[in-house]
Amino acid sequence: MTPDLFGETAPPGLAYLPGFALAEEAALIGAALGVAAAAPLRVMSTPGGKKMSVAATNCGAAGWVSDARGYRYERRDPLTSLPWPAMPGLFLTLAQAAAAQAGFAGFNPDACLINCYEPGAKMALHQDKDEADLTAPIVSISLGLPAVFLWGGANRSDKPARLPLHSGDVVVWGGATRLNFHGIAPLPSGHHPPLGAARLNLTFRRALRA
DNA sequence: CAGTCTCA
DNA sequence: TTAA
């Protein structure tokens, strides 16, 4: 456990970078909304047929998709059959800088999943394991309303730590904890000036073989 | 294939 | 909140 400047404690195996992206908050939100203008936010279904509580879209060479056929990465948006929008340069720059700061130099993400949470939306504990390259880390940037990040272990039964995430915070994990279970507790209601009553999460991954 | 969900 |  390493204490940080804001008094929060990063759980083992997780790099916690509070405020790392705060200076670029407005530009990141603008870029994310630009992606959503071309590849609309949509509610995906799990393979079991249940709707997720977040709305999602993607940018980059590959995008994460879930439907009755399963979880996978697709090079094109199933909604428009167009390639996903290009990853904004600012996204790539920040994701690489955060990864480097966390000890993962050379991170070259090709996928950015954008999840939009409205109050009540959540993400149950899960593993990110649909990527072809599990040697690359996961970089997650929070924007808008604060949320509680659930940081579990290698087994679903491991009790997760709870870490508050605010707009501009970045978390990074990889290596030995690359497949750790994680999630987001139900989003409390609130209002964030640039974004309104919502939280956006940008998750960067190397989805295709490096 | 699926627990990125829902309910006990 | 935790287990299943």
UniProtKB/TrEMBL annotation:
Residues binding 2-oxoglutarate: 115-117, 199-205
Single GO BP term: oxidative RNA demethylation
Cofactor: Fe(2+)
InterPro entries xrefs: Alkb, AlkB-like, AlkB-like_sf, Oxoglu/Fe-dep_dioxygenase_dom
GO molecular function, one term: oxidative RNA demethylase activity
The organism's place on the tree of life at top rank: Bacteria
Keyword check for Membrane: yes
Membrane-spanning segments: 20-43
Cellular component GO terms held in the UniProt record: cytoplasm
Pfam families: 2OG-FeII_Oxy_2
PROSITE patterns attached to this UniProt entry: FE2OG_OXY (PS51471)
Cofactor: binding comment: Binds 1 Fe(2+) ion per subunit.
Amino acids binding substrate: 64, 71-73, 130, 156
Keywords: Dioxygenase, Iron, Membrane, Metal-binding, Methyltransferase, Oxidoreductase, Transferase, Transmembrane, Transmembrane helix
Binding site for Fe cation: 126, 128, 182
Enzyme kind, highest EC tier: oxidoreductase
Fe2OG dioxygenase domain location: 108-208
Record-listed E.C. numbers: 1.14.11.33
Entries under Gene3D superfamilies matching the protein: Alpha-ketoglutarate-dependent dioxygenase AlkB-like (2.60.120.590)
PANTHER family (alphabetical): ALKYLATED DNA REPAIR PROTEIN ALKB-RELATED (PTHR16557), NUCLEIC ACID DIOXYGENASE ALKBH1 (PTHR16557:SF2)
UniProt protein name: Alkylated DNA repair protein (DNA oxidative demethylase)
